[in-house]
Amino acid sequence: MPRMRGRDWVAVSAVSWCCAFAALHVFWALGGSAGLASSAGAELAARRPTVFVVLGLWGVAALLLAAAGVVGGAASAQLPPQLRRILGWLIGAAGLVMVARGVVVELLLITDAGGVRTAVGPEQTRWSLALWNPWFVIGGVLFVWTGCRVVRRLPGSRSAESCGTPVR
Q1: Beta bridge partners of 76
Q2: What integer pLDDT is reported at residue 61 of this predicted model?
Q3: Average of pLDDT values for 18-44?
Q4: Dihedral, CA of residue 51, residue 54, residue 58 and residue 62, to nearest 10
Q5: What sign does the CA torsion over 158, 164, 166, 168 have?
Q6: Are 120 and 40 spatial neighbours (Cβ–Cβ below 8 Å)?
Q7: Residue 157: pLDDT band with limits 50, 70, 90
Q8: SS3 category, 4
Q9: Fewer CB atoms inside 10 Å of the end CB: C or N, the chain?
Q10: Residue 132 CB contacts under 8 Å (≥ 6 apart), including other chains
């Protein structure tokens, strides 16, 4: 990974989040089962159709590793400022989607809107509320914060004191 400016712990955390989640998907794709039923549902975890393994496990792992590379590249000084600006905005937008996804699914499960909680079952509901949705929210917050910091640190940025740390 390219060297990050000022050893940006937020970007390193976002990259680590991606890598940890990618590793879990690779574990599942290679046949591991711990946690899969609570994430994807017991029936899907037991059947493991090819399309699920290829797209839902290997595909998601590849997407997460690509995202880690984008975050690392955007946070480094190796890329041109205009490209880093675009990547910073895209990273922030992706983070907002992840936060929204985590919050919306959490609310749907808590309120049992449309019978969602009943449809997924008690075990998947419990793990979604306690682990999976908070995991998405944490990742989303890291992405939003990283995107903001990437844009803020660019030459000529007007948001010099935003995103939590002063400009260096």
Answers
A1: 4
A2: 97
A3: 94
A4: -100
A5: negative
A6: no
A7: confident
A8: strand
A9: C
A10: 38, 39
Q: CB-based contacts of 7: which residues, under 8 Å, 6+ apart? A: none
Q: Do 10 and 145 form a contact (C-beta atoms < 8 A)?
A: yes
Query: Distances from the Cα of 41 to the Cαs of 5, 59, 128, 135, in angstroms?
Result: 41, 18, 11, 17
pTM of the model: 0.86
Q: What pLDDT does residue 17 have?
A: 97
CA distance 57 to 42: 15
Provide the residue type at 65 as one letter.
L
Q: What does each C-alpha distance from 78 to 68, 72, 96, 112, 145 come to in angstroms?
A: 15, 10, 25, 47, 20
User: Which residues on neighbouring strands pair with residue 4, listed in sequence order?
Assistant: 76
Q: Letter for the amino acid at 82?
A: Q
